[in-house]
Amino acid sequence: MWADSSGRQARKTPATVRxxxxxxxxxxxxxxxxxxxxxCQMNENDSERMLGFLKDIRYxxxxxxxxxxxxxxxxxxxxxxxEQKVYSILGRFKELKKENPGLIIGVSGCVAQQEGAxxxxxxxxxxxxxxxxxxxxxxxxxxxxEKKKRVVAVEFKEGIDEDEYACERPETGRKAFVSIMxxxxxxxxxxxxxxxxxxxxxxxxxxxVAEVVSLSGAGAREVTLIGQNVNSYGTxxxxxxxxxxxxRKVASVDGIQRVRFITSHPKDISEDLIxxxxxxxxxxxxxxxxxxxxSVRILKxxxxxxxxSEYLSKILLxxxxxxxxAITTDIIVGFPGETDSxxxxxxxxxxxxxxxxxxxxxxxxxxxxxxxxxxxxxxPETRAERLRVLQERQKEITAERNMELVGRTMExxxxxVSKVDPEEISGRTTCNRIVNFRAPLEMNGTxxxxxxxxAYANSLRxxxxxxxxxxx
Length: 472
Ligand code: SAH
Ligand code: SF4
Ligand code: F3S
What we know:
This protein starts with a helix and ends in an 8-residue tail after the last strand. The protein contains 16 helices and 19 strands. Helix 3 links the parallel strand 1 (31-37) and strand 2 (59-61). The relative contact order is 0.08. It has a six-stranded parallel beta sheet, sandwiched between helices. The chain has a five-stranded mixed β-barrel with strand order 15-16-17-19-18. It has a three-stranded parallel beta sheet with strand order 7-10-11, sandwiched between helices. It is α/β, with parallel strands linked by helices and 472 residues long.
């Protein structure tokens, strides 16, 4: 999300030149924040809101920590040794703090929520620790740190106040994430999210629509509605309408050309939502539906709330109604107790569904989760080998599915200059594939028909066509 044209420019310019340029352009009362974001779309959205709140007090973003007045690391603890990673990143900034004692350093996000005051104890040069429910307090926390107080804000809020979203979005481009809910109540046995993001609560539909109207006014053409389980939007605390109705409202906002959402939980996806793909032309033909495993037994141990056959029947309905829709998923290998036979069931499911793409991970025990205490933890070597086998198989399937698109004309929303060739522009199809083609940059933000001429592992190449044929 941050890789907009200015971001790319910043990466190409040597760091020293960039620092000098930034210092020269800097107004005396302006301050600089260096913000590094890890993890999911929720964290990206939280980072954007931080930048928005900080803009009120004249902070703008810098791409280099060396000239920053404030450094924030927005962390993720979904896998691996997340805590150690944060301490090692913090270590990098120790020298900077020595050189500039006025520098303020903060850690936010899911590791901040998980570790709280421990982070302050273990990193004496750290000033602020705040969790995902306290993003909107960033200005207050900063003012405390300026008084030389070290502060921790990790308390959970029950509901959502719209004040938490009342900020400008300084980095709005053509695409924007809109958070529609917070937290998760599912407690899948391997997952840390319910502990770091708290209970599920939805934002009111009118507030979400107002945010989309304002993003559209700022130039956004595509919005992605985000939540850990968007299919249960409006069913618990907070929301006033169901998810399909929210999608209709958002799609009706002037200027918005495409609507996406992430993440869907297979147990909660309704037929109403599935039918909406046929009725709402702005709704992109792509669904990310994490299955996690192809083994009936492992799915039960994961507490996912659906069986393999229930998952497959939803896929079948989607494929019957929309044969060309892209379906992607998440898969964990090496969950405790997973045998070769369970893993083969996952490979079989992958062969049956032929996902357009998958995000696959080795199981990683997370502190405080049920599965971390399960018997039968799988050896790291076995986990790594299973991941390799799965990824190899999926690579073949993705390549085959990309090849199937050659010769078709597809609608592409232009997002800017291509990352691989500055002479080309780049955009995405409704099924979320990257397409590079030659056309003037003025087309940025418009929908263009493109004939797909070549397929690669992670992108497509094409030629612009007259605006007459349009198969999504
Ligand atoms: N809410 C989403 C997932 C959010 S986390 C859903 O339920 O589908 C993103 C992905 O990280 C998960 O889908 C899962 O595949 C992976 N993940 C979560 N916890 C993990 C763990 N402990 N080890 C390995 N992968 C994990
Ligand atoms: Fe984690 Fe499960 Fe919630 Fe997804 S649904 S965030 S995997 S607990
Ligand atoms: Fe990571 Fe927290 Fe998101 S653990 S995946 S940043 S909800």
